[in-house]
């Protein structure tokens, strides 16, 4: 027998996830509004990340070169290319381009963008049936130290 979590616990959990994925408070606001309206929070999260310019959409069959193109279009990754932070001026994604497996490409890209203080989170929608929605979403976010 399972019980549903209280709405406040669910809202808090979604707010924490939003904060981990993107610092833009509008992301959490959109998800919270969806929860209050009884709408699917996952769809609201995806839309809000996309609106924040933090989302690269890919298909399972895509390869490393398409991942590199998608990541290069994200404002956060583009800014990392221009920032003078004492770190390498751009994530070196050359090794990712030649990878044919998307999972391997995501892992390699995650390592490359870590060098400029970013992280990559792969969000698998799992359905893959809807031609309008890619089955993979990658959110680039600022790296944080995880609590121990």
TrEMBL record:
Residues 13-127 form the DUF6630 domain. It holds the Pfam family DUF6630. It comes from the Bacteria. This is DUF6630 domain-containing protein. It comes from Litorihabitans aurantiacus.
